[in-house]
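User: Show me a protein chain along with its predicted structure.
Assistant: Here is one chain, sequence first, then C-alpha cells.
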Amino acid sequence: MSTEDGPGIRTTVFFKGCGLKCTWCHNPESISMQPQLQWIDNKCINCRTCTDTCRNDAISFGDSGLIIDRTKCNSCGECVEECPSTALEMLGIKWNLDELVNEVIKDKAFFDKSDGGITISGGEAALQYEFASAFLKELKANGIQTAVDTCGLCSRKALEMILSYAEIVLFDMKMIDPQRHRELTGSENDKILENLIFTGEFIKSHVHPRTLWVRTPIIPGTTDTEANISGIGAFIAKNLNGVVDRWELCAFNNLCKDKYLRLDMKWDFADTQLLPEETMERLALVARESGVDPEIVHWSGSTRLEED
C-alpha cells in the first residue's frame, strides 16, 4: 500500500544493499546486503525463549530490555522462528523469482484500478540487477506497471538492464556539489550524474514511453540550500531538457527513528524537526526559477505545524 513511490497504489519491493551511506537514510535496514535481526520492544512478553534458543549466546536481557550482541549474531533466524510474540524479526528474506512474482501479483486489481503497479527500491535494486531486471520482465508479462527507484550509483550495464523493463524511473538527485555529496553520502556524484544523463538518453531513444521523475530529499542542514536546489535545476535544464516529467522535492521525515534504535544504529537526525511549509514553498520556487519547466516541480511530504 505505497502511495509515495510512483503513481497510483503500489507495492514497493525493497532490495537490501546500497553503495551510498547517506547520513539521513530513511531505510537503514537496506544499507547492508546481509540479513539483520531487530527487536520490537512493545511486542516482547519477556518470556526469554530467544535466549534459550540462541546457540551463539548473542541475546541477553538488561535493564532496558533485550540486547543483541551483533558480533556474535549470525542472523540464522532461529530465535525469530521460536519467538511466540513476533518481537524478533529478520530484515532480509531470500526469495526466488517465481515466489516473489506470485506474491506481488495478488494485488493486481488494486494496481489496475488506480494506475499503480510495482516499484523496486532499496537500498539499491541495481546491485542485484540480474534478479531485479528478470523480476520486472515477469511483471510486465503479467500486465503490471513497473517502476524503479534508484540512487544512480551502479554500473552502466546494471542500469541498462533494469531500464529495459522499467516504465517509470524515480532517480534520486541529492546533492550537486561533489565534495558535499561525498561528505554526506560516502561517495562523489560523478557516476550518478553520468547515469542520470544516460537514463535521459535511454528514454529518448526507445520507442515505448517511459516516465522519468527526479527526486531530491530536502534534509535540514544538508540538501536544503538554495544553492543546491538551483544547481540541480541547472543540471536538469542543461542535460535533461524535456525528458524529466516530474522533479519532486521530498520533505524530510523522522519516521525511521525507531528503525535505527532496533538495529542499534546511531542516527544523526534523531532530534531533527520537520521542515516548515514555508521552507518547502521557498525551495520549490527556487526550483521553478532554476531553468527547468516550472510545471514539473512539486514538493511532497509532511511539514512542521507552527504554533499560534
